[in-house]
Amino acid sequence: xxxxxxxxxxxxxxxxxxxxxxxxxxxxxxxxxxxxxxxxxxxxxxxxxxxxxxxxxxxxxxxxxxxxxxxxxxxxxxxxxxxxxxxxxxxxxxxxxxxxxxxxxxxxxxxxxxxxxxxxxxxxxxxxxxxxxxxxxxxxxxxxxxxxxxxxxxxxxxxxxxxxxxxxxxxxxxxxxxxxxxxxxxxxxxxxxxxxxxxxxxxxxxxxxxxxxxxxxxxxxxxxxxxxxxxxxxxxxxxxxxxxxxxxxxxxxxxxxxxxxxxxxxxxxxxxxxxxxxxxxxxxxxxxxxxxxxxxxxxxxxxxxxxxxxxxxxxxxxxxxxxxxxxxxxxxxxxxxxxxxxxxxxxxxxxxxxxxxxxxxxxxxxxxxxxxxxxxxxx
Length: 379
Prior knowledge:
This protein is of the alpha+beta class. 17% of the residues lie in helices and 26% in strands. It has eight helices and 22 strands. A hairpin with a 2-residue loop joins strand 6 and strand 7. The two termini are 42 Å apart.
């Protein structure tokens, strides 16, 4: 409780709502509006062969078209050249599961030449969903087979629940999931072996719901990480912002290794020599590793000495710079994993009370730390 009160005092000093979920339980914002440019900036880094003749899915967007809140899902069929061949209407049953209609209940069409959508023969000022725009932007290069877009309105309890999809039916998923359900969503994608490029709140790097998957190489940080996007709470009836814009710090995470390979090809070097500046790096005597050493604390996650091969503790931001090929790293608050995998964990459990790894022991000058990363260069 004292730690939570201390955190609340810190949060009150922040002049904007970060929308983050911290390791101590601050609830995250559920939805973020993803600007088209941010989606394009990430997707343009992936080779087209990942998408050729693939069935794609973008769930979580329930406001697909301006002025048409009754449409919760569509499936776009492409021809072999990446042109829109047909647009099918998706509705939901009583269990909020998608139902595909070949005879459209709502007539949706797309004019390839004019690049305009028509609903019931009237031009639509949209689509509002930026993931639809992004897929159409790349369609001529990707030449996908189909792409499904769907969403669920939690306020009205209407639409297509993301859990109702069978993700084995899709080859790749690109979306911005609601952060409160990203654990279940990510577990489903990994279990179904479905490729993905999705957004995650930044602090989940140090949380088991995302960070553990990153540590185990079940997913990877994308090309654009630790950047801000706006949070906008839209009124679906008026299509106006209901609450003031907020800012959320996020990462792209993906099943594709491309960004990690790119980082691996650029060695992380600072020009700092440990023997000269070792007094700038405090030693964590409370943490003992299996090799008998104690990790040092980085004052800045980019200040790792080039000639230091031992263990170090850093903020989760260090994952921007280090990679899984040249470094090994472990989350400090993945307690269940460390306790269940004592042989794989690098910590000396004999030094902990009851021989259990406990995050609360991560202290410096008597102050507990938030989730951190313990890592070292591979020798």
